[in-house]
Amino acid sequence: MTSQDRTTWLNTIVGLIGIIIGLIGIMPAYFSFPRVQWEIFFISMAIFLFAISIKYFIKRRSLVIIVEEPKTPITNFTAQLGTHQNTGLLSKEQRLAQIQAGQNPYVGGAALSGNSAMFYGRERELQGTLSVLRNPEKPGDVSILGERRIGKSSLLNKIYQALSAEPNIVTIQTTMQDWSIESQASFFTQLHQAICNALKIHSNAVDNYADFRDFIRDYAEKGYRFVLMIDEFEKMTGNEYFDVQFFSNMRTLSNNGDYKLGYVLASRQPLKDICKQSKIEESSFYNIFGTSYLLGLLAQKEAVQLIQEPMQRSLGYHFEQTQEIFLYAGYHPAFIQIVASEYWIARHHGFAVNRAAFERVLQGHYQYLWAHRTQTERQLLLKIAQHNIPQDNAILMTLRQRGLLTQENQLFAPFFEQYLIEQ
Which contiguous run of DSSP H or E holds residue 13? Predict the structure, then answer.
């Protein structure tokens, strides 16, 4: 019950008591009860007036204005203002120190946090992206490509964490995966609100491109730079509210140095292909992205470290079954964590490894990889599974870059080969 409800309830009770007592006093006088009628009347009236006075006093107190802090509107964006006081990226040793003995360190489903101990590799992509975004004139534009579960979201989190220590860079992050967008107005309203939250400022509401553009320009003139990071970008271009004009405007925001805004977009397909499929190619939005990284498998050394170092920290001894994990996961970062987690449980509790558990999970991911291949790619993969390796070509190079093949044009894991043959 709120304070207002309690006051209303108390006023009502006091009023009713006063009325009842007053009636009790009036009735004897009206019906000419003997002797004490006037005494009862005056006493009852006095009580009645006293009750009315209490009610009036409480009513006056209830008029006190309670000023509450305005609630922050809900936004699907997360934003931060970079400062030297923020942690930024931890060293590898600092991240590994977070692993606790006797606790399973492997992350099976969610994206890794920016300073996760389980983040291995991607150093070239990380440093290359940061060098573009740290441009003192204006952050550049970067496209992060790769298959599902290859580590795009984890890399975005790493970039976001690094930028937290970059003074005067406002970084805004969002994913379109579960965001139901109602309109362009909703997009600009929430984006503007997130930036205001990061800067700790109050600003007139913004619900259109022109007002948002002016808002960004005003704060760019004050020395701020902006980086907008969008994960699952395909979901945005597939939304009917974002048309050619919208992406032409978004192109202008980055292409014009007055706004000091850059983008980092993560998607499965190249931006040009996405724009063409969504019929927004005329916006030329994809043309502003001068830097692009396609994520594939980890290097062998990185994959070995991902297995052995966390095992050593959490179990307290050297892990000797690394090659068994590679039979199922190859050098794929997410698949390694899925399989290594089961091996960790078996080692820690003294169980036999439950291979059936992670085989079912891997087959689900393999099915997705297969379903999102072209017919030509499927034919090539089946030939390789049957040890009939074709001559090197552009399609094989793409499959290598995307982590389905090794540098030797072999399938990335023997278990994946078995899956294709059974198909």
Answer: helix 3-30
Q: Is residue 360 part of a domain?
A: yes
Q: Are 262 and 139 in contact (CB under 8 A)?
A: yes
Q: Which two tokens stand for residue 71?
A: 């609630």
DSSP string covering 70-136, please?
A: PPPPP-S-EEEE--TTS--PPPHHHHHTTPPTTS-----SSPPPTT-TT--S-HHHHHHHHHHHT-S
Q: Which amino acid is at 181?
A: I
Q: Which residues contact 154 (CB under 8 A, 6 or more apart)?
A: 111, 112, 116, 119
Instruction: Please tell me whether residues 143 and 218 are part of one structural domain.
Output: yes
Q: Phi first, then psi: what are they for 285, rounded to 5°? A: -60, -40
269: domain CATH number is 3.40.50.300
CA–CA distance, 42 with 64 (Å, rounded to integer): 34
Cα dihedral sign, 192-193-198-199: positive
Q: Which ranges constitute the DSSP H helices of 136-232?
A: 152-163, 184-199, 209-221
The tens digit of pLDDT for each residue in 301-310 reads 999 999 999 9
Single-letter code of the amino acid located at 264: V
Total number of domains constituting the chain: 3
Q: According to the model, what pLDDT value does residue 397 have?
A: 96
289 and 354 together in one domain: no
Task: Please report whether residue 403 resides in a domain.
Answer: yes
Of the candidates 87, 134, 142, which has an alpha carbon nearest to the alpha carbon of residue 115?
Answer: 87
Tokens 């600009």, residue located: 188
* Whole-prediction pTM: 0.82
Chain-centroid distance of CA 193 in Å reads 16
Q: Which of 313, 319, 315 is nearest to 97 (CA)?
A: 313
Q: Does a structural domain hold residue 302? A: no
Q: Which of 299, 288, 227 is nearest to 79 (CA)?
A: 227
- The residues that bridge with 225 in the sheet, in sequence order, are 169
